[in-house]
Amino acid sequence: MSVDLTQFIPSFLEESFEGLELMESSLLNLEQGDDETINSIFRAAHSIKGGAGTFGFNHVTEFTHLVETLLDEMRDGRRNIEQDDVELLLESVDCMRLLIEAIRDEQECDSEKIAENSTRLEETLASSGNVNTEALLINVDDTTDNNNDITRWQIKFIPEHHLVQTGNDPLLLFNALADLGEISLEADAKDLPALNDIDAEELYLSWQLTLCSNASEAEIKEVFEWVEDECELIITKEEHLLAVEVEVKEGIEVNTIDQSSQDEATNITTPIESSFPEPTPKNIPDKPAGKSKNDLGSIRVGVDKVDSLINLVGELVITQSMLSELGNDFDLSKVERLNAGLEQLLQNTKELQESVMRIRMLPISFVFNRFPRLVHDLSKKTGKEIELILKGEQTELDKTVMEQIGDPLVHLVRNAVDHGIESAHVRLANGKPEKGSIVLDAYHQGGSICIEISDDGGGIDRQAVFNKALEKGLVDEKTTLSDSQVFDLLFEPGFSTAKEVSDISGRGVGMDVVKKNIQSLGGRIQVESEQGKGSTFRINLPLTLAILDGQLVRVGKEVYIIPLITIVESLQPQKELINRVSGDMLLYRLREDNVPVIPIYQLFNIPCEFEHIESCLLVVVEADGQKIGLMVDDLLAQQQVVIKSLNDNYQQVQGVSGATILGDGSVAMILDVPGIIEMALTKAQINQQHQSSVQSQITQSISTGVNT
Amino acid sequence: MDIQMLAAEVPVEGEHSLEGIDFITSGDQYLTFLLADEQYAVDILCVEEIRSWENPTRIPNSPCYIKGVINMRGIIVPIVDLRMKFNISSAIYCETTVVIVLTVETEDKTRTIGFVVDAVSDVLNVEASDIKPAPAFGGCVPQNYLQGLVNVGENVVTLLNVNVLQEIEKHQLI
Fold first, then answer.
1. Lower CB count within 10 Å: N or C terminus of chain A?
2. What is the per-residue pLDDT for B128?
3. Cα distance from B35 to chain A (closest Cα, Å)?
4. Can you tell me whether residue A659 is helix, strand or coil?
């Protein structure tokens, strides 16, 4: 029986990435004499190396081996944990990630960087005099002194019975030994129990091997490295031979025969005899099609979530059978039971929907985890001491949202380090602790999630922002703006208050992109800042992109959905609160605010029964800190809707973010509030351009509407 | 123009044209349909389904020939009125009005669009050699939509290029 190893590669990749993350975060927390941490780093590296070895990814194995050797020295206390070494290890983790990503993408990776890094690792390993770089030194010896010396090694290999259950195969070990030199071996079957007592998953044999090779003891030991805890291994040097004197019995085959006879005895195929494919590094096995870099593949889901799903499906099946039984010979006396059944079905469906949604929810720590490293690197680069505090890491967020929020967050954290936190002497002068702190916090707020990035730095210079906006012609000298309006200017394209473009920020990805990304997720971002005390960027995001709570409204004969999250309030307009300004602009006085009124029927060219604002209802929505009133004919139900893309078969439509299917099977459009604001602004601009010419039909109809 | 009368007539023509033709071996199959009193055809392999006319949901600010979108088993499918698209005649919706839903797989995606036509009439077997180039003498249908002409009995059927049909918004909307 042969096992197709390639099917395990995705799990290897996934585990490796997890291991790398663990290594990274542990390295950041690594302190002198912390055995447990360094052990866990070592273990992670060790399993990556092992996995890579199994699949024949030799370049990963080789590189990781160097990392592991360095870690081993630290673990054994032979080397002090120096900051430089930790930095080197962090960079090595990056290299390992590159290597493994290259495997995933089936591409060549940046070998120059890897080579440079492994040279540095080797140098570090060789540098310390008191360091026992056994393996490496002997390697060197082998190639120089013992080049032609053939040693005859006697190896006694007595594996524990459960060895094969851990996935180790003696045959592989022997094959590896055979690579080192001529090998002969004898199997000892004295422990073999009676036929009936044989457990096919146990290994009862032990071996006496003779290896004629110029390999060192360390190299031989390395072959058995994976099983060293699970076997008794005695290696003795027999004699020095100058000439090759070989006595090869068909050792390996003997061994195979032994094992297969053992299998025949039990007539059960076991992993023991699996003939592993020859590890060929070039021949990276075929992966499932469509596994590209963008394909983030699988989700690891807690068993509890799956359990609850299975339970619910069970319930659903019971309900279904109950209903179909009812339907068999239905008469009116059963109506009550039918209603009960339908009620149950409703409940089941709802719970099932929630459970399925929950499967896509992952704790936000998946995103947050990258920040300790980022802040570590940045603080080194800027020479600022910064502490990063993560809060609410267990807050769950939809996977799709999570994938897309990563980059904006990175940008904001970079900004906080670069612009937010002042340098140490400024902080001390201002009576602040020398060490700045950045807090990343996530929490649920109603149907949305809130992510906050706050720093205790210098805050945003309101005047500088305002001046910059003046300079760019975005505002007028006389304009008075609230703080939040000023800070919103930061999100204008090409707006940077940084005096010079540094290595960290100002690489072209501006705050406008951050805002755009967040908006494309249906979220919004707000800034709060107090000069000298720090600033907070608060991002509000919908929990999921697939479903939203919507308010159904009727405009003319058509039904539209307004996302509930954008709605501030809905009201019946009062005539005396309607104002007309600058000739064609409708404003509604909502307490202290003047809210521009946008007639959707005009924007969308819908024939409509009520064209006068007095007879309409006004839905006040807010986006980008801008409130607008949407004129609708009627408010209908509120319901959760599943968002369907219009792009798939059609194209993006301005003012519409997608479509959904209502209960009756018809399609309704979901309004895109920021898009509508933009549309209205564009329209207003066009109107202004044509100010001198005849006023458009639309404006006239509004004015007549108001006057009557 | 009495479309219903024409629609009733045409299948008879189609039957004539199909007489004696081996369905399996001879050429590609095309679905023919009526627009006003003209016959058109599309590659039958692209036809996803034929639906009766139902009022779609309007898409705001779309061109007049985009009638809106419908829900086809959970997929949002835009509906294009071919007569309005080609300026053939004004749209009348009657009993025989149907929507031919065409699916075309391009390199990066599959696109499904429904086309409103007056009636479907027949399945036509056409050998590649029977397809004549369409003359460039104008007419309402833009040249790039035409795959060619086929003579069927005394009638001429216009073969439409489905791939170009599917790109309808690329040419017209942006």
1. C
2. 81
3. 23
4. strand
